[in-house]
Hints:
- The chain is α/β, with parallel strands linked by helices.
- It has helices at residues 14-18, 21-30, 40-43, 47-50, 67-71, 92-96, 105-124, 127-137, 163-172, 188-194, 201-207, 227-231, 250-259, 301-316, and strands at 5-9, 32-33, 55-59, 78-82, 100-103, 155-159, 178-182, 197-198, 210-213, 238-241, 264-267, 287-289, 324-325.
- It is elongated and about 70 Å long.
Amino acid sequence: MSKPAALMILSESACPMIYGPDERRDLDELVTLLDAPHTPQSILGRPDLLSQAELIVSGWGGPTLTEAFLETVPKLKGFFYAAGSLAGILTDAVWERRITVTSAAYANAVPVAEYTFATIIFSLKHGWRLSRELKQRRVFDPTARDVAPGCYKRVVGLVSLGAIARKLLEMLRPLDLDIIAYDPHLSDEEARRLGVRKVDLVELFRKADVVSIHTPELPETFGMIDARLLSSMKFGAAFINTARGKLVRTEELIAVAAARADLQFVLDVVDPEPLPFNSLLYELDNVMLTPHIAGSAGQECRRMGRYMVEEVQRYTAGLPLKYAVEPQLIWNTSHRPMSWRTPGKVSSPWSVAGPGISALV
């Protein structure tokens, strides 16, 4: 059987980050690559290549699959996306053409879960505050151990149970923690299976020793984390955001952080990004900022490429894909209104139940 004709289309900088020599070699064995990698701009000048392509192997900076673009690839049968969010990539034309789509969102979930796992443990040890105090006093205080609560029987609250949060759950299970979760699309049966206790958003912020945000960025979720929730957190609690900066009302977070020195804020994402030079977030001792490093970076990007190479291997062997994305699994906010301002009475598809559903997380 002849190998399917394929094109690699993604940004020039992303290509070597995601598809290293090993991934490129393995792709060569599975498909006939019609040319060297292209960007969405450069490939438009090669209609001869587009007309032959049966598969597109892509990643960050890949093409948007509009009806107009799809008309240039009449033979296209599969789109392999070595990145996370497909929100700005897919259109209805993809499903009308019955094109197979698969995403490496689960690969991108791994480093975010790892970052959050490490941050949760350090936060439960009150490591941020104790480190600051030790540097300020320059005296080692052996009694500090008495005010470092640790992990045992502490409460961790997860806001939304998407792909990242579920990977994080796997890591947290051995730690004897009490995991509570707010996800309006989570059934009681699924909560029991995952070993989490469902609560509303107000209760989660009030009870958790650490709150970790994993909600997708949607118009309905902008600013959902406000001063009321943040100021209700228990003494010494920590707030972690590795999701999106727009989920949090930045000025209200600043006000709460300034008023509550006991709280710790760990922000890998902010709004706006980058922050203004004069932002008070740079000044507050109880705010830890990292430059959007939780997601795949450096060598971790190759994991996403490897996931897609393995998906191409399954595809060419006629096997079911592990990370296939279906139209009903993409968030459809126009048909699913949400009123998250009334915790406990929300109806919105935030959660993800398995591979592929995490396209927007």
